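Why Sigma-70 family RNA polymerase sigma factor? Reviewers of the renewal asked for a concrete example.
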Amino acid sequence: MINDDLSQVYAEHNGWLKQWLYRRLGCSAQAADLAQDTFLRILQAQQKAGASLSLQRPRAYLATVSRRLVHDHFRRQSLERAYLDMLAQLPELFALSAEEQWEMRETLQQLDALLDTFKPVVRSVFLLVQLEGLTYIEVARRLGIGERTVKRHMANALQACILFDEDF
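Here is what the prediction returned.
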């Protein structure tokens, strides 16, 4: 049974995982949250596959899933810090109300979640063009892919953003 195997992994390795995460985050509450998120991701993957995942090295697997969650956590934290810095630099005339700030933060979190759905190379292409202002040729050279591939990835990313905007 799917849940029985995961329950056993949880019982045997949850404490270790929380310690592992604490060493990376320095906060026991965040470590506990990300440990729970790790097991939730594994449960979702098992349910999607319709079978128990065979974990021959559970700690290595847990560390891999958790490492991705830690990376996402720090990326979101960096995004929020950049947003707050930008708000602090706005002249008082253009300052956003608390409600507008909340709406902007929600939108940024939703966009961040959208970026998580992109393949890593598509996300890299999109961020290099949109945030770093690189040309398609520069992105192609940096990533070692063709310019046509960069154009195709940007088209896919922009289409997802347009559909996101229509849903929002």
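Residues 96-164 form a domain with the Arc Repressor Mutant, subunit A fold (CATH 1.10.10.10). This is the kind of structural detail the renewal will allow us to pursue systematically.
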